[in-house]
Amino acid sequence: MNLVGNAIKFTEFGQVSVTITPDPSTAGRLKFEVSDTGIGIPEDKLGRIFEDFTQAEASTTRRFGGTGLGLGICRRLIERMGGQLNVSSEYGKGCSFQFELLFSLSDREKLLDSEQTQTLAGRRLLILDSDPTSRLILTQTCEHWGMLTYDCSEVSEAFEVLNDSAQAEKPFDLVIVDRFLPNDGFEFAVAARSLHPTLLLVLITSQEEPGDLSRTQQLGLAGYAVKPVQRPELLHLISSAFCSAKEGRRELISPRQTAIPTSVPPTKKRLLIAEDSEDNRFLLEAYLKGSLYELTFAENGERAVELVRSQSFDLILMDMQMPVMDGLAATRMIRQYEQMSGEASIPILALTANARSEDREACRAAGSTAHLSKPIAKSRLLSAIEQYCPQRFPSE
Ligand code: ADP
Questions:
Q1: Is the pLDDT score of 265 beyond 50?
Q2: What's the 389 CA to ligand 1 centre distance in angstroms?
Q3: Residue nearest to atom 17 of ligand 1 (CA)
Q4: How much is the mean pLDDT over the chain?
Q5: Binding pocket residue ranges, ligand 1, CB within 6 Å
Q6: 296-300 contacts: CB < 8 A, separation 24 or more?
Q7: Any idea what DSSP says for residue 203?
Q8: If you measure from the C-alpha of residue 6 to the centroid of ligand 1, how many angstroms do you get, rounded to a whole number?
Q9: pLDDT at site 21
Q10: Which domains does the chain have, with CATH numbers?
């Protein structure tokens, strides 16, 4: 967890991968590798990062947080389990942490998935996705369930393979297609269905766009899911697609849709409070106690952006100085997201200890609706919230 957490923390672009490979010569010996395409570690620091309280770059500490203890603990745990933690890195290009451990073998039979996967064995699956990691995960998972897979990254190749297999009378049963191929996955789905009317298509996407679900439904596609698609979710998606096709139902399977009933409007107005200080969160919660607002907290800007993408809010209180991602960057990202997705703009009240006019200007330029300087009196907070997100307070 610590190695994966670090890899994610220090990788803004690209990929993080975890590979576990069995050693063919020794049963139970596994090689673990956690690699990323992040900032990397300078060569002269590589030898020291396993020491306690050591961080490769002091300047990254503020932005990324952390204590410099994690790798020391990892190293000791792995040593006690009989292994050794190694690191290699190219500065600016990424890191790779590796270790090998010997495990004893379980004598339990494989219990999982057996009933559902029986219906998948031998089915022919085409995977169309331009991301190689995504193709690899889908291929490995589906082959593990006995499916016969073919994966490709280009639309032209997908059509060729579909046509050849239909002519050879070995048609594909299902296509899993990425929403952003990089071309439009929907366009591919429509064209593929017009050539092969009985073909089942499931769409997966790294970013849910407004209207995607209803478009999937209108086109009669067999399923829709948002990446990362976990194994049980994928199994459900594929086997439900086959089940409903067998029963002649054109029912859209979307695990995400059942998980979040978006059609039910929230009865309370929803406030998102992005604030890293626990004391301040506690204070704001106390101020708003007894109000009709429903509160959700985010401990940094990045979490706030994630929440805005997955849930709806009526107002955001955004602290400006936070680790990982500060309030200005988060506000900019939220405004960008609203513009791209066509969502209504949420009022964002910037909270900052800096009352200087250039700070107010920076907040406004980032897209904040208004600015409140700390410390904030309860009455001022409530009236600002009330102004931008009207709601009655029972006793104020
Ligand atoms: P922490 O992450 O809490 O600072 P760790 O002991 O886990 O402490 O890591 C020590 C330091 O090693 C980090 O601060 C960072 O400078 C460096 N480091 C660890 N993992 C990575 C990685 N995947 N990419 C770049 N630097 C890393």
A1: no
A2: 41
A3: 56
A4: 84
A5: 2, 6-7, 10, 36, 38-41, 49, 54-57, 60, 66-72, 95
A6: 296/270, 296/271, 296/272, 297/272, 297/273, 298/272, 298/273, 298/274, 299/274, 299/275, 300/274, 300/276, 300/324, 300/325
A7: E
A8: 6
A9: 92
A10: 2-102 (3.30.565.10), 115-246 (3.40.50.2300), 269-388 (3.40.50.2300)
Burial of 253 (0-12, 13-18, 19+ CB in 10 A): buried
Q: How far is CA 126 from CA 154, 192, 245, in A?
A: 12, 12, 17
Ligand 1 centre to CA of 2 (Å) is 9
Give nearest CA residue, ligand 1 atom 16.
Answer: 56
The residue whose two tokens read 């190695």 is 3
Tokens for 281, please give them.
């969160």
Kindly give the distance from the C-alpha atom of residue 68 to the centroid of ligand 1, in angstroms, as a whole number: 7
Q: 130-172 pLDDT, tens per residue?
A: 999 899 999 999 998 899 999 999 999 999 999 999 998 889 9
218 token code pair: 């209108």
Closest approach atom of ligand 1 to CA 66: 3
Note if the pTM is more than 0.85.
no
Per-residue pLDDT, averaged over 213-230, amounts to 86
* 56 to 35, 53, 312: CA distances (angstroms): 17, 10, 39
